[in-house]
Amino acid sequence: MSEHTSDVVIVGGGLIGAWTAFFLARRGQRVTLIEKGVVGAQSSGVNFGNLRLQGRFPGQYPLSLRSQALWEDFDALIGEDCEFEQTGHLYLAYDEEEHAKLESYAKVSESYGLAIERLGRAELKRRWPWLSERAIAATFSARDATANPRLATPAIARAAVRHGAVIRENTPVTAVDRSGDGFALTLADGGRLSCGALVNCAGAWALEIAEKFGETAPVFPAGPPQFVTEPFPYLIGPSVQAIDGSVIFRQIPRGNIILAGYPRTAADPANNRAPVPPAKTLAAMRALARVAPMLAQCHVIRVWSGIEAYLPDMIPVIGPSETTAGLFHAFGFCGHGFQIGPGVGLCLSEMIVDGATQTPLEPFSIGRFRSAAIISEKFRREFD
Amino acid sequence: MDAPKPQFRRVAARAGQPAMLSFDGTTIRATTGDSVLAALLESGALIRRLEFGAEPRAGFCLMGACQDCWVWSAEGGRFRACTTEVADGMVLSAEPQLLGGADG
Amino acid sequence: MADIVIVGAGPAGISAAETLCAKGLKPVLIDEGARAGGQGYRRPADNLALDMNRLMGSEAGKYAALHRRFEALRAKIDYRPRTLVWAIDGNQLHLLQDGRAATLAFDRLLIASGAMDRVAPLPGWTLPGVFTLGGAQVALKDQGCLIGSRVAFLGSSPLLALAAKQYRDMGADIAVIADTTPFAAKAAALPALLRAPRTLLRGISYMGASLRAGTQMLHGVTPVAVEGEVRVEALLLRDAQGRERRFACDAVALGYGLKPETQLADLAQAEFAYDPDFRLHLPKIDGLGRARPGLYLAGDGVRIGGADAAEASGALAAHAILTDLGQPQDIELVRRLARQVERLRAFQRGLARAFAWPAAQIAALPDSVMLCRCENVTIGDVRMAMAKELGPIEVNRVKAMTRCGMGRCQGRVCGPALQEIVAAGRDGASAGRLRGQAPVKPIALAAAGDPA
Q1: Which CATH superfamily hosts domain A89-142+225-305?
Q2: How, if at all, do strands B9-10 and A137-141 pair?
Q3: C-alpha torsion A55→A56→A62→A63, nearest 10
Q4: Contacting residues of B for C170, CB less than 8 Å apart
Q5: Residues of A in contact with C376 (CB under 8 A)
Q6: Residue C379 is part of which domain span?
Q7: Which numeric CATH code is attached to B18-93?
């Protein structure tokens, strides 16, 4: 291995790449992270900032819980603050059918040891008097949290650098090739790298690398319309999500309310554009006023979106390549990669250094796309 | 305590219906056509306090661009003081009234 | 018939509408203000006892003529006052009217969004009693009020002397007129200014008037601080000789020239280029004001040129629309308008060099100075973020890391100064351009309609 310029090269400086670089560097690996722009600029930096545990895909819980412990330890681990707030997460049901779905989510969460509170109308009114009476039931998970995505990835990348990782921003990769039992990379600035292990976490741009090594996944780019309001008196507390998918919002201690709405909009990774159609902003504004009528006169001050990579079964690809030893994929996080980011980085570092990880990752195998892809119910609901 | 010193000084009279408004419990006499901002600054009031430090603010650009003069109405509404005309009976405050009470 | 929408009812928008009307077209004229005229030719309410002839001085005739022309036009166009364009999506404008969202489709869009003051921060500039220079004039023309009884005028602009004269005529004490540009720099720019001698004479006459009235007019100052506990009590400066000077006052008007309000042009997907004379990123236009097919930009909203240039460029952009619609044009008239616009804008470019934006002074401001009024971000916060490993080096990333420019005004006020803090003495282009995002101004959730 010593003839390589790096032990591991990571392509893609998003949240996943930064966490992976951090854990590998901490294990003494010689890591180089290559980023075409700047770290944490795409979906890692512009997402909603949700560290939600309840209501996740069941096969993801071991990874999710491992990740949450790392987020909870962020300041000590990383040495910086990322505005982590353990606010809890409130899931709202508007009718009996949704209530039943909440209940099934709650049972899954509880089977993994998560504490879920079930709340009826009276209890909702008592604890969050600003909530509209439209919600007939809710579940509350106190361990769920939020953080500022704009701050998190650069902070993690800096911590990786302190552990010895090399991070090269504004450096697109122009070629990746097999070289012996390792890999050779050519960079846009003419530089060359070689490594024993290659991590492909290039988000909406990851498919090129996968296909270079003879595997594929039906990944496509999209972005949720998001907005932020002016600062308002702080009173909301938890992040709040309607299970019908119409709205998710949270209030930061500074007072601003951040909202993500649906359906998501197709994005254009070639031109780095994730448009926010004003009609969707208006729909999301109505959805927020529906849940929290006291915000009717609160003003929206900025909208944005960001390019995220999605897969039709709404489950990411995480794990080793099935064609090429030493290649690892982690992409297609379908809008829920923020919470599991640290766990993914840790698992990848274990697979690379130890040859295996204790966390089950079978559901995330890239091989599942060799047969016809399953279309998730969530997928139908959350896209145009 | 002395009456607060007005920031604005009127040099051109406005003919029109008087409009009485209340700001943070103080009655302010204005004339229809006045902006809320002019009425407040002529009376000695300031406009608002910054959310992140409680320092006073009294508007800046006066043309609806800087967004530094938003005030609250008693009904929970929000007005940009420099581009909102006074209306008789307006009840305004620098700080929001209690939110999160009864809702529909 | 093509749907033509003009945004902004200042001199540019009005003359564009007039030109189109003369050819039998009926444009929609949208204006955020309640009364037409824009900021410079702002029309006072009828019930305000203000002698506009006296206030407008030599411009009074033009001012009156513009309003007469607008009155004649009003019935022939679809005029929509008190209407904000908050977003643009393809060929659809998103409006806010009477607190409600609405849409309006267009075939051709002419944006004449006007300008606002460019301001440089200094310690104490967020104190009540500090206003923009344009704001000081709005207070007078729109409200019949002075921003204070004893007013200091600070910045880098010939309009400092103009506004001070108006204020003195209306009974204000003038504490000082303090310009950051050295006198020698203004003299050096004289040749360019001579391209518009009438306007120059006007400027000089105001400075002369200031001196005759015994008002202190200082050139080449370095602003030190606005002082006061709860509101403005004094302005502290260092004069050109380096002496500290304190001027007691109860209000400060800050003005470093104007900057185009380009947010709508940005949302309409105009391309931008950095202009080193103005030290601003400005939309690219051709000689007639075309930014891209179907999009036309005119007036101070695209290039600072003053009211005369705005009027001519509005007419010119209307001729561009007519040309693009295949209507035969009076080529000589179009050429004359284009020459006029070019000459007046060249003069303003000369002014921008003479009354320079004090980039070096701003880059040298201490860390403690507030930069973003909305989000409470200091210059030190920005410098600290930039100094970190992997720290940001351009304005959009700085905004993401520090929240500078992320608040209610979306960087309108702090943007130009943020550029200089990020550039830190280098070329302003190196800081990048703060990208615009909808909404152009804050909109209440209730505007989106019934949540039921």
Answers
A1: D-Amino Acid Oxidase, subunit A, domain 2 (3.30.9.10)
A2: unpaired
A3: -140
A4: 11-12
A5: none
A6: 359-431
A7: 3.10.20.440
Q: What's the CATH number where C306 sits?
A: 3.50.50.60
- Quick check: A123 pLDDT over 80? yes
Structural domain contains residue C203: yes
Cα separation, C49 vs A70, whole angstroms = 68
The verdict on residue C438 lying in a domain is no
Would you say how long chain A is, in residues?
384
If we measure between CA atoms, which residue out of C67, C43, C258 comes closest to residue C143? C43
Better-scored residue on pLDDT, C63 or C439 = C439
Tokens of A187: 């960079």
Q: Tell me, yes or no, whether C45 and C97 share the same domain.
A: yes
Where exactly are the structural domains of chain B? Answer: 18-93
Residue range A177-221, pLDDT digits in tens: 999 999 999 999 999 999 999 999 998 889 999 999 999 999 999
Question: Per mean pLDDT, which range of A10-14, A153-157, C132-136, C448-452 is the poorest?
Answer: C448-452
Smallest Cβ distance to C408: which of A158, A230, A277? A230
Contacts of B58 in chain C (CB under 8 A): 128-129, 231
Task: Choose among B70, A134, A355, A138: nearest CA to C407.
Answer: B70
As for how many domains chain C has, the answer is 3
CATH placement of domain A6-52+150-217+312-374: 3.50.50.60
Q: Are A309 and A332 in contact (CB under 8 A)?
A: yes
Q: Which of C298, C330, C352 is the last residue of a domain?
A: C352
Q: Which helix (H) or strand (E) holds A283?
A: helix A278-291
| Partner chains of A (3+ C-beta pairs under 8 Å) | B, C
CB contact under 8 A, C445 and A301: no
Task: Enumerate the residues of chain C whose CB falls inside 8 A of the CB of residue B56.
Answer: 127-128, 230-231
Do domains A6-52+150-217+312-374 and A89-142+225-305 share one topology? The answer is no
Q: Where are the beta strands (DSSP E) in B1-104?
A: 9-10, 18-23, 26-31, 48-49, 56-57, 70-73, 78-80, 91-93
Does the beta carbon of B51 lie under 8 angstroms from any beta carbon of chain A? Answer: yes
C449 within some domain: no
CA dist C438 and C431 (Å) reads 22
Strands (E) across C27-140 are located at 28-30, 78-80, 83-89, 92-97, 100-105, 108-111, 115-117, 130-132
pTM, entire model: 0.95
Q: Confirm whether C436 is domain-assigned.
A: no
Looking at the fold, whether C58 and C161 belong to one and the same domain comes out as no
- The alpha-carbon gap from C142 to the nearest alpha carbon of chain B, in Å, equals 8
For chain C, which chains pass the contact test of at least 3 CB pairs under 8 Å?
Answer: A, B
| Residue C52 backbone dihedrals phi, psi, to 5 degrees | -65, -30
Paired with C282 in beta bridges are C273
The Cα of C119 is separated from the nearest Cα of chain A by a number of Å equal to 22
The pLDDT of residue B103 is: 35
Find the angle CA(C11)-CA(C135)-CA(C203) to the nearest 5 degrees: 65
Is C300 an 8 Å CB contact of chain B?
A: no
Rounded Cα gap, residues C240 and C218, in angstroms: 8
Q: Interface pTM (ipTM) of the complex?
A: 0.94
Terminal-to-terminal C-alpha distance of chain C: 38
3-state DSSP call for residue C115? strand
Residue A261: partners with Cβ closer than 8 Å, 6 or more residues away:
A224, A225, A226, A227, A246, A247, A280, A281, A283, A284, A287
**A50-61, pLDDT tens digit by residue?**
999 999 999 999
Determine the distance in angstroms separating the CA of C392 from the nearest CA of chain A, rounded to an integer.
9
Query: Are C128 and C247 part of one and the same domain?
Result: yes
Categorize the per-residue pLDDT at B100 as very low, low, confident or very high, splitting at 50, 70 and 90. very low
Tokens 């380009």, residue located: C262
Best mutation site among A126, A229, A297 for testing chain B: the one with the most B CBs within 10 Å? Answer: A297
Do B99 and A130 count as a contact with CB atoms less than 8 A apart? Answer: yes
